[in-house]
Amino acid sequence: FELTCDKSLCNATGNLHGGAVALVFDMCTSATVAPVAKENFWDTGHVSRTLNYTYIRPASEGSVLLVESEIVHLGKSMGMVRGVMRRKDNGLVCYTCEHGEARVMPPKPSL
Prior knowledge:
By secondary structure, this protein is mostly beta strands. It is 14% helix and 41% strand.
């Protein structure tokens, strides 16, 4: 994914806001699970269990970031996706994350 750090996503110092970092990672890492979903395997949706992110260096307003994510593990009900945001112009890492996901299990049929 690619993101331009718009002023509306920046804090008072002109850098990408921490809340925006969390939102972008949550959306992008969650979207990474969709292509591998199949019947009875991560096809009923999922929710965040944990979202841990680390600030390496700030991304200033106008910066273009590349957001990369990869599935580390998807089990029967729990998964882990790793993400990184790096500057497009020089490849420097700005933020990283680990996103723990929990699969939403369908309700069991009543007897």
